[in-house]
Starch-binding associating with outer membrane
Amino acid sequence: MKHIYSILIVLFFISCTNDFEEINTNSNAPVNVQPSLLLRQVIYDYGEQMSYEGFTAGNLLGQYSTALDFNLFDRHNLKSPQLGGNPWPIFYQNLRDNEIILNLSQENTAFTVYEGPARIMKAYMAAGLTDLFGDVPYSEAFKGDIATVTPVYDTQESIYMDAGGILDNLDQGIAAMENYSGTISLKGDILFNGDLAGWIRFANSLKIKYLMRISTKVDVTAQLQAIVSEGNFINENSENAIFNFTDGEPNNFRLARLRIGDFNNYVLSETMDEILTGLNDPRIGRLYRSFGNSTDAGFNGLLNGIDASAGVSLADYSLLGTIFRENTGLLDANFMTSMETHFLLAEAAQKGFITADTEMLYNTGVTQAFAYWQVELPVDYLNTEGALANGNPLENIITQKWIANTINGYEGWVEYRRTGFPQLKTISASLNDNLIPVRMPYPAEEEALNSINYAAAASKTDGNSINVNVWWDE
C-alpha cells in the first residue's frame, strides 16, 4: 500500500509540473513595461513624496517652520528622522525606475522620444540627491538586476562634471529632443503634456541652477552667458515645471492627509516671521494663519529646535496656511519655476557672471513669486521694503528666492549652505553643538547593506558627520 501511495504522489507531481509554467503565467500581466506609465509614475511619485519631505524635514532645516513635538530632526539630530527626513529611498526608487525608461529609449526606436525627458529627470534627481548627501552611489547604481547591489560611492564632483553626470545628461537630453524627428508623441508627461519644447526650457533652467551651484569651483561664465543669450529657459509662470495637487484624495498634498495633531505640529518659524514681517510682506497670510491668542489677527513665530519637554501653547503660534491642508488644489508639486530662474540669473548678474540687468531680473522674480503664491503684489513693494537696493542686493536676491521656494524640497537649506543667506538662527536646544548642518547623513541601512562602500564614504565625512561640507561648498 505504501508503494502504491508513493507512485501516486510521483505521478501527481509529474502531471502538475508539465503545466507548471503555463499555470503560473499571468496572461493579464504586460510582458514589457511601457515607458509612458513609468514616466508618469516617476514624475508623480518623486514630486508628491519630495513635496511632503521638503515641507516637513526640509522646511525645518531651512527654518521656514518649527516642529513642536517629534522634533529631534528640528533639533538637528538628523539620524533620527520623524514625520519626514529620510529622502534616500525616494531618490533611489525613482532613479531606478527612470533608468528603465532611459534604457528602453535606447533599445527600442519606438521609445526614442523618451530619451530626453529621462536624461533630464536623471540629472534633476541626481542633483537633488548629491546636494543633500555629497558623495553617493551613482555610476554603479540603478543596476542591481544586471551588475551589483553594492555600488561604489562617486564623488560629487564627478557626478556633476563627468560623462553621464548631471550637466552631461542635461546637454544630451536637450540634444535628443532637438534632434528627434519621429512621429510618436511623448505620453505620460504630467509636467508639459508631451511638449518637448517645455522640457528643453526646463533643462536650460536646470543648467542655470546647477552652474550657479558649482560656480565657486568652476568658471561658469561662458556657459551661463550662452544660455542667457539664447533665451530658451523657463521665462513665465505658464512655463513652470509643476503639476497640480487637488483639494481631495488621492491626489491632494500629503500634509492634508495627516492627522490633525500631526498637521498642527508645524508652526511658523521665528526666522520666517521676522523676515516676512520686516518686509511687510502679505504672503505671510497665504503661507501661515494668525495665531489663536492674537487680538489683532497677527502672526507669531517660534524659534526652531525647542526642547519639546519645555511645553508651549499652540494658540500662541501661527499654524500653516489653509493652502497646505484645506485648499491644496491651489498648490503645486514644484520642480523648477520662472521665479527661481530669474532669481538665479539676478544673482549671476550681480556677481558679474552674465551681462544683464540685475534689478530687472530681480523684480521679475519677485513679481512672479507673488503671482505663483496667488498674492497681490503691493504697489510700492519693489520701491520700499522689497527693493533690491534696500540693504545688501545679493542677500535680497537669495532671501526672496528662499521665500518663494517654500514647498520646493530642501532648496532653502541647500541655497543657505551655498550662499549664507538668509541668515538662519542658532536653534533653541541644538543636538549638534549649535551648528547648522551642512549635509544629510547616509541612512543606517547603507551601513548594513553596502558596508564596504559605506565605510569608505563615511571615512571621508568624519564618520558620516552632518558638519562636513559637500564639494561645491568646501
